[in-house]
Amino acid sequence: MRKNLVAGNWKMNTTYQDGLALVSEITNMVQDEVTGSDVEVVICPPFPFLAAIGKQLPENSRFHLGAQNCSQKESGAYTGEVSARMLQSVGCEYVILGHSERRQYFREDNELLSQKLKAALATGLKPIFCVGESLETREADDTFKFISQQLQEGLFHLSNEEFDQVVIAYEPIWAIGTGKTATSAQAQEVHAYIREQIAQAYDAEAALNTTILYGGSANAQNARELFSQPDVDGGLIGGASLKSRDFTDIIKSF
Ligand code: PGA
């Protein structure tokens, strides 16, 4: 079901100790300051901290635990990999898949990502599936075509029931970690397009019910404007999720 959601993607940052301190600041601030809003919050720390941070999240609250990646394999001799089942067993409910950094630095393509999606969904994890164009693609006026291809190849092979579990994050690569945010109009335009594509691939109801997040240099200053767009349901936050004050202010932006 469509909801307001803010996910913090810590990427490869913090130590165990700093991570625990950060999450305790965030949960305290949010519990004190965020009232009268049903926004859900997903915290996505690095793998080694997941279990401990999950235990620090207040039970039956707006807080949920997410991972930043998972293996497409179920189990076995895959040195260094982390399976969806492992993530689920330490309390993860969500997993980010298809982040542009994974696509770019670890050569994850739509084919591999569709296997990862299947693995996550088979275990009951909710994927946060990322799409987004490079600056080159945007300047060539190919944004819609590119996003459509990512959706078709990466996501739209899922059944209706599987697709129901998916959150989509639109993250223009040129806006990630650059301080250059998409304007709210640019974000809205692509979010509306994504919803249209969902309606075509599934149906109008699926399109209406899908949570679509914006990501890319979202911060406490621009979140309110971005989240006020009709097709923007929240944010996937990198840099600003590492600062409790900023992250809480973003969560308060609804
Ligand atoms: P950023 O990262 O907020 O630091 O731009 C967003 C993301 O990569 O998910």
UniProtKB/TrEMBL annotation:
<dbReference type="GO" id="GO:0019563">
    <property type="term" value="P:glycerol catabolic process"/>
</dbReference>
<dbReference type="GO" id="GO:0004807">
    <property type="term" value="F:triose-phosphate isomerase activity"/>
</dbReference>
<dbReference type="InterPro" id="IPR022896">
    <property type="entry name" value="TrioseP_Isoase_bac/euk"/>
</dbReference>
<feature type="binding site">
    <location>
        <position position="217"/>
    </location>
    <ligand>
        <name>substrate</name>
    </ligand>
</feature>
<keyword id="KW-0413">Isomerase</keyword>
<dbReference type="GO" id="GO:0006096">
    <property type="term" value="P:glycolytic process"/>
</dbReference>
<dbReference type="InterPro" id="IPR035990">
    <property type="entry name" value="TIM_sf"/>
</dbReference>
<dbReference type="GO" id="GO:0006094">
    <property type="term" value="P:gluconeogenesis"/>
</dbReference>
<comment type="pathway">
    <text>Carbohydrate biosynthesis; gluconeogenesis.</text>
</comment>
<dbReference type="GO" id="GO:0005829">
    <property type="term" value="C:cytosol"/>
</dbReference>
<comment type="subunit">
    <text>Homodimer.</text>
</comment>
<feature type="binding site">
    <location>
        <position position="177"/>
    </location>
    <ligand>
        <name>substrate</name>
    </ligand>
</feature>
<dbReference type="InterPro" id="IPR013785">
    <property type="entry name" value="Aldolase_TIM"/>
</dbReference>
<feature type="binding site">
    <location>
        <begin position="9"/>
        <end position="11"/>
    </location>
    <ligand>
        <name>substrate</name>
    </ligand>
</feature>
<feature type="binding site">
    <location>
        <begin position="238"/>
        <end position="239"/>
    </location>
    <ligand>
        <name>substrate</name>
    </ligand>
</feature>
<comment type="pathway">
    <text>Carbohydrate degradation; glycolysis; D-glyceraldehyde 3-phosphate from glycerone phosphate: step 1/1.</text>
</comment>
<dbReference type="InterPro" id="IPR000652">
    <property type="entry name" value="Triosephosphate_isomerase"/>
</dbReference>
<dbReference type="InterPro" id="IPR020861">
    <property type="entry name" value="Triosephosphate_isomerase_AS"/>
</dbReference>
<comment type="similarity">
    <text>Belongs to the triosephosphate isomerase family.</text>
</comment>
<feature type="active site" description="Proton acceptor">
    <location>
        <position position="171"/>
    </location>
</feature>
<keyword id="KW-0312">Gluconeogenesis</keyword>
<comment type="function">
    <text>Involved in the gluconeogenesis. Catalyzes stereospecifically the conversion of dihydroxyacetone phosphate (DHAP) to D-glyceraldehyde-3-phosphate (G3P).</text>
</comment>
<dbReference type="Pfam" id="PF00121">
    <property type="entry name" value="TIM"/>
</dbReference>
<protein>
    <recommendedName>
        <fullName>Triosephosphate isomerase</fullName>
        <ecNumber>5.3.1.1</ecNumber>
    </recommendedName>
</protein>
<keyword id="KW-0963">Cytoplasm</keyword>
<keyword id="KW-0324">Glycolysis</keyword>
<feature type="active site" description="Electrophile">
    <location>
        <position position="99"/>
    </location>
</feature>
<dbReference type="GO" id="GO:0046166">
    <property type="term" value="P:glyceraldehyde-3-phosphate biosynthetic process"/>
</dbReference>
